[in-house]
Amino acid sequence: MTALFEHWGATHEWAWFFSMLIGILVIALPLMLAVAMIIYAERKIWAAMALRRGPNVVGPWGLLQSFADGLKVFLKETIIPTSANKGLFLIAPIVTFTVALIVWAVVPFQAGVVLADVNVGLLYILAASSLGVYGVIVAGWASNSKYPFFSALRAAAQMVSYEVSIGFVLITVVLYAGTFNLSAIVLQQKGFGLGIVNGFGFNLLLFPMWVVFFISSMAETFRTPFDLVEAESELVAGHQTEYSSMSFALFWLGEYANVILMCALNALLFWGGWLPPVDWAPLYIIPGIIWLLIKMSLFFFMFGWVKATVPRYRYDQLMRLGWKIFLPLSLLFVVLTSGWLMLTRYGGPAV
């Protein structure tokens, strides 16, 4: 696209700027629309599992319910508590929302379709997504209220606990793929299955790590059964308790953008990304982005399924799962993956 703008007479700097701007809008605008629609879809999933109808009034089949809710929130007054730190109080939801968007810069939707195909894409995602907890912590402290403050403390402890195990899980992926580039990680998944199963992405060695990553991704995004940060029976609404209007909406937009990101990472890191399920020529007729969206939809359904059926963990159970189960298990698989690669890929230890 840069070459197209240069052909139209723009300088290289302006051509690059406009091409990047268009790329950002092409990702950000559909993502915002996707957030609205997955909120509707998740409410339908919950309703179906509870034998209810869910949204069915606003628009055909209730499809416009999320937009009606967004308009309602937009028209409400933004109320700032008198004892709150006003600057930080207003910045916190902006931080959460912005961090949730910038991570998508390195996510490949199919071969060559990525805004920034950097060699350290996985490190970028790990670093940028970790910043999201700052919005929660700042919101809890700036509200100057006890329930948001307790929520901020919980968020910090929960994020640290599960970031550690996720880091070791990603080490196993990087060891097997030999790169931090997300596009290369997807392509490296061709023919996975250790020679037993010829399915793209289904790696028998890393399958337990996918289970750990999937559960940890729910804890990272504060989803049920790990939603101790927003536990309504204990903390009213957690760090969002004192928020209203668009400030409140930005937290929700950021949270669901992170949920979609985790669904994408599950597909890209462990299930072949934009590759079809098996290496069969007719399946390549379907564009890679469609395969990626199908896999993301499946993982999002699993997120909604868990939220509708699994009761919330106690906080001691949450910590025990992260530190006493996931951390030793992920460390063990780092050793197993390294050993397997030494024996099979690198010809065993040097004599």
How do the strands and helices of this protein lay out in sequence?
Elements: H1 2-7, H2 12-49, H3 65-75, H4 86-102, H5 121-130, H6 132-142, H7 146-177, H8 182-187, H9 207-220, H10 232-235, H11 245-270, H12 288-309, H13 315-344
Helix pairs in contact: 2-11, 2-12, 3-11, 4-6, 4-11, 6-7, 7-9, 7-13, 9-11, 11-12
Quick tags:
globular
The chain-level mean pLDDT equals 81
For the biggest sheet, the summary is: none
Structural class, from secondary structure content? Answer: mainly alpha
Distance between the termini: 53 Å
List how many beta strands DSSP finds.
Answer: 0
Which word captures the global form? Answer: globular
Give the helix level as a range of percent. Answer: 55-70%
Portion in beta strands: under 5%
Stretches where pLDDT is under 50 for at least 5 consecutive residues are none
**In angstroms, what is the radius of gyration?**
22 Å
- Order of SSEs: HHHHHHHHHHHHH
Q: Count the helices. How many?
A: 13
Structure notes:
The structure is a single chain. By secondary structure, this protein is mostly helical. Helix content is 65%, strand content 0%. It contains 13 helices and no strands. Helix 2 crosses helix 11 (245-270). It is globular and about 65 Å long.
Summary, kept brief:
Helix content is 65%, strand content 0%. The chain has 351 residues and is mainly α.
